[in-house]
Write a structure and sequence with these properties.
The structure is a single chain. The chain has an eight-stranded antiparallel barrel with strand order 1-3-4-5-6-7-8-9. The protein is 14% helix and 63% strand. With 181 residues, the protein is mainly beta. Strand 4 (62-79) and strand 5 (85-106) form a beta hairpin.
Amino acid sequence: MKKHITIMILFLSSNILIQAGGFGFTFDGGSPFMNLMSSMGSGGSTIALTPTAYYVHNLPDGKLEPSLSYYSTKYTETSYYDYGTTSTETSSTTVLGIGYLKDRLKTDTYSTYWGGRISMTNMSDEDDSIFSISPVYGAEYNFSNNFSIGGETRLNYAFDTSDEETSVIDISAHLFFRFYN
């Protein structure tokens, strides 16, 4: 898993230095799928989210956005049968993704887009991966040539590679901040 993270960081940093584009980030703490994963642990689990970071590569009619996010989950359990002993376990989740976004309506300050995103999720305490395919629709408002704020709605279809073949379909909304060169 560390190899995947290193490759993605090198890819993102080399593209930022070589090509014109930009970067962006979003928070997705309302994702039902991530909440489902965090609740599979102990009843007292909490999930700490960091933003998803995006590299923005401008295309003539849209954008290509590789992404990277990292989630850390902390489980604390108290055993009442063993004299109140408390144990804490931490696991992490890394999500690597890419999105293709095609412009629909574009003016000087406002644009809408549609497209798709795919991602692969690896968890530190699991051998199986989770894959997600999401058609998206979004809009963004450009405050200047270098900064925009936007929103995106996704219909997520997520499935894992385990023998149980679990899948989830949900809708999520994301607030984007993008910075352009």
